[in-house]
Amino acid sequence: MSGIHDLIDSEVKGNDVVLFMKGTPQFPQCGFSGQVVQILDYLGLDYKGINVLADQEIRQGIKDYSNWPTIPQLYIKGEFVGGCDIVREMFQSGELQSHLQEQGIAVRGAA
Questions:
Q1: Distance between CA atoms of residues 20 and 58, nearest Å
Q2: What are phi and psi of 105, to 5 degrees?
Q3: Which domains does the chain have, with CATH numbers?
Q4: CA separation for the pair 30, 18 (Å, rounded)
């Protein structure tokens, strides 16, 4: 294992909500990353966005880390949640909101 694995591991475990994405939360550079950003912003989450386009090692490393082939990737409390489709489905069903609350993370507009 390399230093990149350790770096990713520390980001994932050191932040409650981490989104590995193309671009930044302010300027997403792909539609899928943008959709996840919209959901996280809608829920009022404080999260860390990591731009995989800025570092080729992270871009490949996160795929190896999660064994998931695509970006974006959302992590909550150190646990891989999924990519755009999974996050969107969980959000629409209310499962994402419940999961966040179970992890002790406040969600805007939740009962």
A1: 9
A2: -105, 125
A3: 3-102 (3.40.30.10)
A4: 17
Q: Is 84 annotated as a binding residue?
A: no
Q: What phi and psi values does residue 71 have, to the nearest 5 degrees? A: -115, 145
Q: How far apart are CA 19 and CA 41, in angstroms?
A: 12
Neighbouring C-beta atoms of residue 10, cutoff 10 Å: 10
How many residues are recorded in the chain?
Answer: 111
Number of helices (H), then strands (E), belonging to the chain: the values are 5, 4
- The beta strand positions in 15-101, using DSSP E, are 17-21, 48-51, 73-76, 79-82
Per-residue pLDDT of 15-71, as tens digits, reads 999 999 999 999 999 999 999 999 999 999 999 999 999 999 999 999 999 999 999
Among candidate residues 77, 75, 70, 80, the one with its CA nearest the CA of residue 32: 70
d(CA 5, CA 23): 20
